[in-house]
Amino acid sequence: MKNSLIILAVFVMFSCKSQEYPINTMPMNLPNDSYIKDYNNELDSFIGVFKTLYNGKEITLDISKKIKKKFTRNSSTVSYYYKDALVIRFLIKGSFGNVLQTTLNSLDDEKHFISNTIVLTPQNIVKFYYTGADCGIGWGNIEIKKLNNVQISWSYYPNSTTLDNINCPNPIDTKVYLPETENLVFTKQ
């Protein structure tokens, strides 16, 4: 009887463990609490601090890897999955060195949240989703391609946001500071 209870406890423990999937798995139809894992460290080559100049602005990207980051799935019921993900924090300075926008020192992982959605390994491309600044301003897709060991290219495709007093009662700043361009080269620092 005691052995049966031990075997049952071990079975329950392993059956409750979240299921793991490779990094390129799309989360839409995965079971709740699934874990999309970077088994082969495919994300690691994108990690680092990268800088560029664009239209008189200095842009710094700090790309880091978060292990088992929690994501909410868009569905009629609240469900979650976990994923090894790249997260981008950024600093944008004007031509006089003044800070126009930054998330580098933010303790809130969700403010101006940029995280990868898929890795295209053969092409050395990672696709990201950006939630936008205040009231979702500038939300859209970003694509980063690894060019070599010290350079990446950036392509940003923002979507439009309609602002009104209901969905955005007090927008602080309605300007999109991230570079709205394709194939902008950043160099690793």
Structure description:
With 189 residues, the chain is mainly beta. It has one domain. Helix content is 8%, strand content 44%. The chain is built from 1 helix and 11 strands. Strands 1, 2, 3, 4, 5, 6, 7, 8, 9, 10 and 11 form an 11-stranded mixed β-sheet that branches. The longest helix is centred in the N-terminal third of the chain and has 15 residues. About 4% of the residues have low confidence.
The number of E-state strands comes to 11
Secondary structural class: mainly beta
- Domain module tally: 1
Distance between the termini: 62 Å
Radius of gyration: 20 Å
The residue fraction in helices comes out at: under 10%
Major sheet summary line: 11 strands, mixed
For the residues shown, what is the average pLDDT? 86
Succession of helices and strands: HEEEEEEEEEEE
Stretches where pLDDT is under 50 for at least 5 consecutive residues are 8-15
Percent of residues in β-strands: 35-45%
What's the number of helices? Answer: 1
Give the overall shape.
globular
Question: What's the structural blueprint in terms of helices and strands?
Answer:
Blueprint: H1 2-16, E1 20-22, E2 34-37, E3 48-54, E4 57-73, E5 79-93, E6 99-102, E7 114-120, E8 125-130, E9 140-146, E10 151-158, E11 184-188
Parallel strand pairs: 1-2, 2-5
Antiparallel strand pairs: 3-4, 3-11, 4-5, 5-6, 7-8, 8-9, 9-10, 10-11
